[in-house]
Amino acid sequence: MTRRFTPSEILWPSDTGFLEVSALFVEGAQQQILNALWSGYDSLMAVVAGSDLDTRMEDVERTLTQLLEPHVRDALTGDETFYCQHGVHEHETRLPAPAQPPLYDIGFVLRANPRIVWPVEAKVLKTERWVAPYVADVRDQFLTCRYAPFTGSGAMAAYLLSGCTGTVLENISHALGATMGSHPRFRADRHGVTDHLRAVPDGKLYPSAFRCHHLIMPIGTKTGPG
User: How far apart are CA 72 and CA 224, in angstroms?
Assistant: First the structure.
């Protein structure tokens, strides 16, 4: 079964300059995006300070992401080349209908070309050892180019309910088999980066080099650095 074009694919068709535009977007906007994510997290934590958030909760991932997104949006000026949106579909890597396209928890969408999205995927970590589903998303979604096909980078946001943030980064690094670097401008014990070589599907010109930002966001009262 073949795919038909979406309205966005008709309005913003892929051409020889498509990936150049995407690369310029990532280069210019990534710092602003990461700043907004951390500022939004800090703002959300000020709201929930003192609340007893623990592993007994349910529907944690969807609820926290829905709460986080407006705080991230508020951290932006509105004059950026992109906007923040909760629940963004990635039509580029969809299967033929009636399959649903991939859905990003939070997407930063280029205003000039809404097909170019810098994605954030959220995951709940009940403990510092609870990294298997998180790592599976990195491998099965980002490293297959199903997520972030055009941008060559993206982020995982880990809502940590119990444990140490630094240990989480170590466990993710070990499970991925990749060196965990620190970001020079963000929190060393909460923000790591890993670099990967992706398997690009035949016939596609997606960036093969991929950088994953790992944002460990403590939510529960039994969390800390180290």
Answer: 22
- The whole-angstrom separation of Cα 188 and Cα 191 is 6
**CA-CA distance, 42 to 36, in Å (whole number)?**
10
Predicted local distance difference test score (pLDDT) of residue 52: 77
Residue 74: which of 48, 104, 103, 37 has the closest Cα? 37
Ranges in the chain, pLDDT < 50: none
Q: What is the pTM of this model?
A: 0.95
Q: How far apart are CA 56 and CA 72, in angstroms?
A: 26
- What pLDDT sits at residue 14? 82
pLDDT in tens, 182-208: 888 888 899 999 999 999 999 999 999
What pLDDT does residue 16 have? 67
Instruction: Look up residue 146 and give its amino acid.
Output: R
Judge residue 184's burial from the number of C-beta atoms within 10 Å of its C-beta, 0-12 exposed, 13-18 middle, 19 or more buried: exposed
d(CA 40, CA 122): 14
- Is the torsion defined by CA of 69, 72, 78, 81 positive or negative? negative
The domains of the chain are located at 16-224
Which H helix or E strand runs over 23? helix 18-48
Q: Which of 170, 146, 142 is nearest to 156 (CA)?
A: 142
